[in-house]
Amino acid sequence: KQKLIHYGVKRRIEIVPNGVTDRVFVKNLKPRTLEHNQTLRIVWHSRISAEKRIMPFLYALKNVNGKYLLDVYGNGGDFSKAQLYSKKHHLNVKFHGTVEFKKLSTAIDKAHLDVLVSYNFDTFGNTLIEADAHGVPVFFCDPDMEEIAAPGGYVKSNGADVKSMAEALKDLTAHPERIEKMSAAMLKHR
Asked: What is the pLDDT of residue 12?
């Protein structure tokens, strides 16, 4: 909404969320926790494409020394490229392809962090709404997504570049206790 106003839209603007069905909500969820010796489980469930920026995210992961596992769900034009890069650089990434929503929902429930790193592209990050429904903290780099994400429930890198994303991820792996605080904020917001 703020961006549309910034660019001169004068008509009345209403925000109508896509919403997530109540069936997705697991009742009585507890905040996620991540201990110093645990693997940070990250889930990607956006299109695997240039505009969603999977390759810059993988480049950032290459610079993260902490223990992580990225589960990638979905398909798109950069699927093969992302697989080849991950294999070549021995990244801890698993590609699952397109799956039914129930399986994806289970994967989100197991994650510590959800990711949406498109920049100046998404107007409404459905990925962020699904993470919110599951109480999973989110990682993004587009300041516009702050309008959607739960206050206190996300990590935003200082820029959209690979170095900024890597620094934010390294900081998170060095301070895993942040996951519980962010997850609690997401659960409160849901």
From this structure: 87
